Structures are given as structure tokens and as C-alpha cells.
Amino acid sequence: MTSIKHIEVVIADVPTIRPHVLAMTTIHSQAVVLVFLHRSDGVVGVGEATTIGGLAYGEESPESVKVNIETYFAPILKACDADNPAAAMAKLDKHIVGNRFAKNAVETALYDALGQKESKPVSDYFGGARTDHLEVLWVLASGDTAADIEEGEKMLAERRHRHFKLKVGKREVIDDCAHVGAIARAFEGRASIRVDVNQAWTREQAHEGAALLQDAGVSLIEQPLVKADLEGMAMLTRDFDIAIMADEPLNGPDTAKIIAKAHAGDVFSLKIAQSGGLARCAEVAAIAQEYGIALYGGTMLEGAVGTAASAHLFACLPKFKWHSEIFGPLLQSEEILEDPLQYRDFGIVIPTAPGLGIKIDHDKLKRFARH
Ligand code: MUC
Ligand code: MG
Fold first, then answer.
1. Structure pTM?
2. How far is the CA of 273 from the centre of ligand 2 (A)?
3. Which residue of 48, 101, 216, 356 shows the fewest CB atoms closer than 10 Å?
4. Residue range 281-295: average pLDDT?
5. Which SS3 state, helix, strand or coil, does residue 13 take?
6. Residue 175: which H helix or E strand, with range?
7. Are 211 and 233 in contact (CB under 8 A)?
8. What's CA 126's distance to the chain center, in Å?
9. Model pLDDT for residues 53-72, shown as the tens digit of each residue
10. Ligand 2 being an ion, which residues bring their Cβ within 5 A of it?
11. Cα 34 to averaged position of ligand 1 atoms, centre (Å)
């Protein structure tokens, strides 16, 4: 049996390249949470539990993840066989309720370490990669129409992204839709435009917004309503041609099944952290498939570790009709890796080296780490 000798949780505050404006918070810096599992054979696995805006987005904060892993996860993990991630995760589930972001980080680290030991990429543990490249969109979220258009033009010219998502919900619906409409016109025929409302609209606002955005040629609306309003989401899904995507209410397989049965979306945003790990996220994808719901690869704006883990899993799943948004490292001013993840041809190259296929730059990490 290979045991886990030591667990280290590091919070690193990495500035973003510009303010990132969401309905519930504006990000200037990301608190990247990295979990290192040191095994008895000397192999070290890493996973990530980054969230958005402290407690503004989810129920776990960077600080709670650190305390909970150190206090409650560590003693359980130390009694587990590190070569059997599924059994270790089952044991955690038996003794720890919720804490999906923390569980995702631990599961990622277990598979990263196992992959390094067995010389297999993490994707091999989830059915094997079906693709070597995934398209990745970019979020235009400066809040300023002209600045967003300029940023989008640069992304297109560099062949970095050709799908853009706009964050709305902070302003009046009419103003937000005018902003989105101007950007949709600027990129007509050259890039697709979607919006993420992050639960900020009432049903009435959502009907007004959906009609305006549909007319403006926007292709998809992500989570317009509060996460509990599945009935409202089902009405939008039924009443409009514009695609409706579920995000915040998708908290693992149990919720995925409820949302799918309620027809509360045409598309699911798959997130490894929100799902509670890679295996759970694969289950969410399977439920979506069963109900004819399209797939999209979501992010919690993680840095390189969570992004690499997502890339490994997403590459194993059936076709992502709506592509992905695993651009987190590009929003951060520094990537804490020896060799950066590769973004080209409007997407990300799926890593193939053992484990996650990445190497942490520990000197860089020290510069950003909280003490
Ligand atoms: C979300 O709500 O989808 C993903 C991209 C982004 O800018 O924010 C995240 C979270
Ligand atoms: Mg979202």
C-alpha cells in the first residue's frame, strides 16, 4: 500500500491581467488554492480548489478549503491507499458532507500522483482522451463596450479565441443588452457571442433579456435565474430558440438529474470543482447525454492545475457542442508552471505527459503564496 505522508495546502494570490467584472463580484486577483499530496514513495500529486470572489460565488472559500482539508480530510486520507483514488474518495464521501471544491482538489492530486507513478496521463483513468485539442472561449468582462471589442479583436487576430462570453446582470437589462448587441454586431460572422447572467435576473427580466439577445444574434444565455428556479429555467428553455445553459445549480450528479428531468436548460456547464471532482463531473456529463442535453466545459477561473485537470477530463467526454472556457491561466498575470499550458488555434492543447502533465514552478509559487 502507498500511503499519504503529508498534505500541504497553499493559497497563492495571483493578480489578474485586468479587472474581471461578474454580476456578483469584480476580480482583481485570484486566490489560487493548491493541494499537494506527498506520498510515501516520494511522488507528489497536485490538485486545485480555486473559487471566485471568496464566498461570493460558492459555499467554500479558499480559507475554508485549507482548514477543512488540513483538519478533516488529512487524517482520513492518511489511512487510505493512495494507489486507489476511487476508494479514497468513497471514504472521504462517507465521512465528509459537501466540500466539493476541496474533494475535487484532492481527487485531482490523487490521480496526478498515480499517473506519474504509472506513466499515464490523467485522461487514461477516465476512458482516454478522444481529442488532443479543445476550443476555448474568452470572457470579455472589462464592463466597457469599446475595451471589450478591442480585446476581442486582439484575440481573433492572434487566433486565440473565436467564441466570446460576456458577463451581464449588473446593469439594467436594456443597458446590458445594448452592450452585448454592440459587441455581437462588431463580431458578426467572425465570432460567436454568449452571455452569462450569473443568476442576476428575475423571470420578467429574463424574458425581456432573452428576447433582446435572441434578436441580436446571441447564441446562448448562461444561468439567467437564481439557481433554485428550475421552473423558470424550464420556461425559458421551452419558450426561446436561444440556448439556455445551466451552471450554478449543477452541483454534482444528484442535482444534474433533477435539472435534466425538469428540462431546465439545453446545455450543461460541466465544472470539475462544482461537481465534486473529475469522476462526479463525468457522471454529470453522462446524465446530460442521457437527457439529450448538450455539453460545455466550464471553469471556476482556476489556474493551470485545475485547468489541466479539466482538460484531461473534458478530452475524454463526448463532443462538446458549445466548446469550453478553460482559459483561467490566461486571465492571471503569471502561470505558476515551469512550462505554460499551450493555447493555440482557438483552443488548448490537451497535456499528454504522465499525471496532469505539468510541473509547478515552486519559486514562482513562493512569490505569490500567502504566509
Ligand atoms: C461562471 O459563472 O461561469 C467562468 C468564466 C468566467 O468569467 O467566470 C466563470 C464562472
Ligand atoms: Mg457561469
1. 0.97
2. 13
3. 216
4. 98
5. strand
6. helix 173-186
7. no
8. 18
9. 999 999 999 999 999 999 99
10. 196, 222, 247
11. 19
